[in-house]
Write a structure and sequence with these properties.
This protein has about 110 residues and is mainly alpha-helical. The chain contains five helices and three strands. The relative contact order is 0.13. About 5% of the residues have low confidence.
Length: about 110
């Protein structure tokens, strides 16, 4: 099964081009080898979450982009996580929540 990480990762690694990232960038960011990433992309493509298409800047390259269904799934997962974490963060003050958010974002960057 394909989890949300590759989907979220597509939007994070290609500034200015929503849903586009290089295959090797995604694999490296997720700590996966290229063949594992290929399998994840293939399964997500079969499920209609990702699509492959030609890279407009490099005719040899193939881009992988999120489909509307991929974006919908990513949004649902994000909302589910927010709902699950909501009760845990309610006891925190505004500054504490901001600090936790900053720390989690920093962790996700690496």
């Amino acid at each position: 099964m394909c989890g949300p990480e590759p989907l979220r990762d597509l939007d994070r690694h290609a500034p200015g081009v929503p849903g586009r990232a290089e295959h090797e960038q995604r694999a490296h960011h997720l700590g996966l080898d290229k063949s594992t990433m290929s399998g994840l992309v293939e399964r997500a493509e079969r499920r209609g979450l990702l699509a492959r298409g030609p890279n407009p800047d490099d005719g040899r390259a193939v881009d992988v982009v999120m489909t509307p269904a991929g974006h919908e799934l990513a949004e649902r997962v994000y909302a589910d996580v927010r709902r699950a974490l909501g009760p845990l963060t309610e006891a925190l003050g505004s500054r504490e929540r901001q600090a936790v958010t900053r720390l989690l974002e920093r962790m996700l960057e690496h």
